[in-house]
Amino acid sequence: MRNNSRENITTTLERLSTTFTTRDIMVPENRLTWAHSESEADRLLVENPAFDVIPIKRCGEYQSYLLRDAVLQNPIQVDDIISDSTPIIDLPGLFHNKDFFFVLSGKKISGYIHFSDLNNQLVKIPYFVLLEAVESRIIEKIEHMIKESDIDHMFPKQATRIKNKQAELRKEQADRGYVNGFYFKEMLLLAEYFHVLSLSDADLNLVNQIRNRVDHPDRPLIKTKKDSANLAKTRDLCTQMLDQLGRDRIEENK
Length: 254
Prior knowledge:
It is built from 9 helices and 7 strands; from the N terminus they run H-E-H-E-E-E-E-H-E-E-H-H-H-H-H-H. It has helices spanning 6-19, 38-47, 91-94, 124-142, 148-154, 159-171, 184-193, 201-215, 225-245; strands at 27-28, 53-58, 61-67, 74-75, 81-83, 100-105, 108-114. Helix 1 runs antiparallel to helix 4 (124-142) and helix 4 (124-142) packs parallel to helix 9.
């Protein structure tokens, strides 16, 4: 990723958007628990306490659904449906007002997706690429600007660790300067220090939090419904950062 131009990164993201889609993480139709009637749907909800919704199929087509604790069934409407080709990276923003969608393939419902499905490991892939793109562009912008005095000023507690890492790599002729020793959050802070990025503290911490979850396979991307909104915001922040980092002229640190 380090040597990719922004054009190559953009192309990669576009390809990933079409490669990893809703159909890859949805519950397919052959695994759906569904009912023929409202009374059967109510019984299935009692028998399956982990389910919050049971679709109802009539005449071979899904026409409505029953929510847990609901009095009446709801007809399946346009707002309840998304395409199976919806890019995974767009999904978190769609769960802003809804917990689930029925998934349409062609003209037929072929599956179901809940916001908890964002914990599928495939969801991490486009976010990993997007965050790697941000890191790559930061390095391109600032690696020639970093001096030892900057490290001492910005990271007094971490300075020894950063310098030792760089020294170890230098022995093996594998270093690229001080950038080898920084964590992702430290790179974001340096990018702000050198005026190539502008982020609020809250946004910086959010992007770093999502980066940590993406990088560790044992950590879920989302723990609550609110986390889907945080994923959507992270995607937007990464796009904004790539726009900032794509400027031809860097405002030098004063």
